[in-house]
Amino acid sequence: MATIVGAATALSASKSFDSRKLHLPSRRSLSVSERKGSFLVVRSDGSVVHKAHRAQILITNAVATKADSSAASTASKPGHELLLFEALREGLEEEMDRDPTVCVMGEDVGHYGGSYKVTKGLATKYGDLRVLDTPIAENSFTGMGIGAAMTGLRPIVEGMNMGFLLLAFNQISNNCGMLHYTSGGQFKIPIVIRGPGGVGRQLGAEHSQRLESYFQSIPGIQMVACSTPYNAKGLMKAAIRSENPVILFEHVLLYNLKERIPDEEYVCSLEEAEMVRPGEHVTILTYSRMRYHVMQAAKTLVNKGYDPEVIDIRSLKPFDLHTIGNSVKKTHRVLIVEECMRTGGIGASLTAAITENFNDYLDAPIICLSSQDVPTPYAGTLEEWTVVQPAQIVTAVEQLCQ
Amino acid sequence: MALCMRKSPKLINHLKYRMGLFDMITPSSWNSTSSHHQEFPVTAPIAHTLGNPDADLSVKATLFSACRFKSTKPEKQLNSLNDADDNKVLDFPGGKVRFSPKMTFISESPEERTQCYRVLDDNGQLILGSNLVQVGKELAVKMYTDMITLQTMDTLFYEAQRQGRISFYLTTIGEEAINIATAAALTADDHVFPQYREPGVLLWRGFTLQEFANQCFVNKADHGKGRQMPIHYGSNKHNYFTVSSTIATQLPHAVGAAYALKMDRKDACAVTYFGDGGSSEGDFHAALNFAAVLEAPVIFICRNNGWAISTPTSDQFRSDGVVVRGSAYGVRSIRVDGNDALAIYGAVHAAHKMAITEHRPILIEALTYRVGHHSTSDDSTKYRSVDEIEWWKLAQDPVTRFRKWIESKDWWSSEAESEFRSSVRQQLLHAIQVAEKAEKPPVADIFTDVYDAPPSNLHEQEKLLRETIRRHPRDYPSDVPA
């Protein structure tokens, strides 16, 4: 069972941001009529439940949960509960135990434990050479990671915020993505580059970047985005084990999601999308935080009689066109919901890919909901309106299904 | 005693009283982080403002908030307040610093430039009183013959580019000593991260003339599978990391490799090369900084050859070259005559030992001159005088200087010279011929090695390309195997 515990906790995990933000209202994602309850409950199988203050009754039939055998279902195993950032850490720790060449480098990852606590405790356990605090020079410590990877280590480079990795673009594009190819396969770069990105709560334009847009063109890299503790741990492990350079996108607001994950070891596939909610009427493709806005909208849609199929694409490069294609062939209508900006985002590429490959199966043009082409404003109200809200998703589905 | 924010008159008076006692207090720096509160002592005029009931409240508030932060270590604070003479020392974050009442600026340029280590004079004779590392006959002869090989290779491949047989080339003329002598002082286990003007290092390590030709002429046997421009050699067998055209990006790579070597406790170091121009890149500064902080065994070798394409060093930096930057980052450095093979050998030999046993980075600035053009795309006579080029080429040639030295030791002769030169020329011409005739890399190599295994989109794109080639064979080169 996954829970969004609210902005207060989400932000307290990040000590680097101002404590003023703790006092913001936490229920942006709910529509006005739903702001009664104290928090939102998102089940791991994708159902969204509004938990009211007084009532203990869960409105379980609001989102019809079909018998779900998807990877996210952990109902049969006991497992253990943890938050997303802890899941990332668990995955990281397991891989560091398993393989002595795995190491971590980034700003404040060592004794401080990382600005989102993903590496907390690891420096004490593995030493501060294996969990390395670097000076502030993103291009250079990414370069360092590439050099270490070519020499036989498996580094994980943490960007304190994905936006800072723009400084590392030169190394990522010209070296990370290319050296395996230009060296004729002689040198491989099994590096993982990860960090939080996306629009947070009033973090300002520079801290609200969606770097997947900029990186998606680089040949030679893979990109994945995690959205639940289950897939966060699985994707982290898969990324570390991969021989290719992988960029793992986390989201600033999702670090405190809680879920029960299996005790036994598991690894997610880097190239597969996740079926969140099977349906018949429309295919909604999304990833990262927007998954939750979509599931929120799905609740409303079900009430209105629609049956949306929600897929968390997870693999941003390459796209899992197999899963996506099967869905399009079934529903014939596609809605893409993303946080990227309209121009040049993941949605734009996905629209092109689907149109190219499955044009014959579409009954209506693809609708892509994205953020506007503006720097993310600081003011709370303005920021809220640059991010796709569930109400817009509902309207778009209604429009598609006319 | 921590002062609180309440602006009660009582407190203001107390402060005024306290400040009154200490009239002329030298303000120390105010570090405002939460765990390092330091006192911000106020001078008399400020105390007056604070005590003045008519003074603007906002001004008072500012002053008050400044006074709010006090050192958490009172005894230390007391010492710094009481001791008003010159020998005051304070333990700042970062270490103890001695104060001085005399305002002095560090000069932007030293009175004398850093001296340059050299052991062979212009005539190839050992300078008296030089301390150098001994080089035996076998090593010296190999060094010399490799320098000639490098020179000959440069001449022939440059000509081949001018004849249109390869698309691009860049020479190492004038920098043969740096290439060969540094390589000679390293071991085969040291990881080399070149810029692009260091093929001599690869040559020293055993890369064959045929392999060089294969890369430049881009045939199937190229280790890079035809993906990189000429001179972008790479060989994991020889621990020589594939050249990437971007300037100075290899410097952080070298630090990363050194980090890996240190973690694995290997008896080897990372070595990286760059030019005077490369030292302006951000990666240079961060790499040196990182290497110093990490205590990583890296040797940074700067080939200061005076020119970055058309930019002379006077337009590149205003510091005393690159060597002085080492100390700015806490890196031990040395300046060496880049045209003196023995001096370079000695310096790198010493640096190698220091880097590995002491776990530290070393910066070596080798002063030299880029005799050739930047590359085949450049005509340097456009921005520098032919006389200047000629002078360096003839009077300061590192190969000639070294030859004079080995001849003086009777390890070499003019017969050996002509014999070797003609032999290596023949070998090179043969290698070029073979390389030119060899098969080109296949179409499949466009799509392999992008990832460990080609994903579906690349399979699709390959299929599409093959389809297109099949349909329009005349639009595609006929000598590329499908």
Automatic annotation (TrEMBL), chain A:
InterPro entries: THDP-binding, Transketo_C/PFOR_II, Transketolase-like_Pyr-bd, Transketolase_C. Keywords: Chloroplast, Metal-binding, Oxidoreductase, Plastid, Potassium, Pyruvate, Thiamine pyrophosphate, Transit peptide. It is found in: Plastid, Chloroplast. The keyword DNA-binding does not apply. GO terms for cellular component: chloroplast. It is an enzyme of class 1 (oxidoreductase). It catalyses: N(6)-[(R)-lipoyl]-L-lysyl-[protein] + pyruvate + H(+) = N(6)-[(R)-S(8)-acetyldihydrolipoyl]-L-lysyl-[protein] + CO2. It holds the Pfam family Transket_pyr. Its cofactor is thiamine diphosphate. Its EC number is 1.2.4.1. Residues 82-257 form the Transketolase-like pyrimidine-binding domain. GO terms for molecular function: metal ion binding; pyruvate dehydrogenase (acetyl-transferring) activity. Gene3D superfamilies: 3.40.50.920, 3.40.50.970. The pyruvate dehydrogenase complex catalyzes the overall conversion of pyruvate to acetyl-CoA and CO(2). It contains multiple copies of three enzymatic components: pyruvate dehydrogenase (E1), dihydrolipoamide acetyltransferase (E2) and lipoamide dehydrogenase (E3). Tetramer of 2 alpha and 2 beta subunits. This is pyruvate dehydrogenase (acetyl-transferring). It comes from Lithocarpus litseifolius.
UniProtKB/TrEMBL annotation, chain B:
One of its GO terms (cellular component) is mitochondrial matrix. It catalyses: N(6)-[(R)-lipoyl]-L-lysyl-[protein] + 3-methyl-2-oxobutanoate + H(+) = N(6)-[(R)-S(8)-2-methylpropanoyldihydrolipoyl]-L-lysyl-[protein] + CO2. GO terms for molecular function: branched-chain 2-oxo acid dehydrogenase activity; metal ion binding. SUPFAM superfamilies: Thiamin diphosphate-binding fold (THDP-binding) (SSF52518). It is found in: Mitochondrion matrix. InterPro entries: Alpha-ketoacid_DH_E1_comp (IPR050771), DH_E1 (IPR001017), THDP-binding (IPR029061). GO terms for biological process: branched-chain amino acid catabolic process. Residues 147-442 form the Dehydrogenase E1 component domain. Its EC number is 1.2.4.4. Its cofactor is thiamine diphosphate. Keywords: Metal-binding, Mitochondrion, Oxidoreductase, Potassium, Transit peptide. Belongs to the BCKDHA family. Heterotetramer of alpha and beta chains. This is 3-methyl-2-oxobutanoate dehydrogenase (2-methylpropanoyl-transferring). It comes from Lithocarpus litseifolius. The lineage of its organism: Eukaryota, Viridiplantae, Streptophyta, Embryophyta, Tracheophyta.
